[in-house]
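May I ask you to comment on the folded chain given beneath this request?
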Amino acid sequence: MFSIYVTGTDTGIGKTLASCALLHALRAHGLRAAGMKPVASGCERIDGQWRNEDALALQAAGAPGLTYADINPFALEHPLAPELAARDAGTEVRLTPILAAHARLASQVDALVVEGVGGWAAPLSASMMQVDLVRALRLPVVLVVGLRLGCLNHALLSARAIVDDGAHLAGWIASHVDPAMARVEDNIAMLRERLPAPCWGVLPHGPGVDPMLLAGHLRVPVLGT
C-alpha cells in the first residue's frame, strides 16, 4: 500500500490543498485512496461531534464510506498548538489510537495521505513529535513549501530537519500563498537546485481553488507520471 506523510514549511501554506490534490491524483489512477488528519485543532460542533474543516476536506476528497473518527482520531476544539488544545480538552494526544485508526483505514484502501500539523517541528504532544508518528508508521515525507518571501530558508531548514531526524524526504510541492511574491520562478528554480528531493508539482493557492483540478499539476512517482 502507498502511504505518505505531508508536512509543511509552516501552518497555513496549503498542506490540506496539496493533500487533497494528491488524493484526487491517486483516485484518478484507479486507486482507492483516503486522507487522514491524525490531530486537528480548531474544530466546530456538528451533529454533536467535533469536526475539523481540513479533516472534512480530506474526507470529501478521499474514497467514500470511511469513518470520520478514523480520519481524525484527535479532533480538538480550540485553534491552538495540539498540546495546548488537548490540555484544554482534558486529554492527551497518544500514538496508540492513531496507529489503530491508520491500520483500520489501511485495511480499506490502496493509498493513504496522512497530513501533519503546522511545520515539521510542531509537537503533537508534550512527549511526541511528528517524527515519532512518521517512524511508527514508516512513512516517507512530502514537504509543502509555501511560496513567499523567506521560503528558501524555511524549506531548506525543514528539509534538513526531516533528514536529520532520520525520515525519508520523498519530494516537495510548491504552494503559492503570496500572489505579490516577486521572482517566483527564480525562487522555484533555486528550490529545485537545493532541496534533496524532487519537486512533485507547483500549486496555485487561494479561495475557491478546486483540488480535483489541481491533481493535474502533480507528478507522483508511485503513479509513474
Summary: The CA atoms of residues 99 and 137 lie 7 Å apart. The longest helix spans residues 15-28.
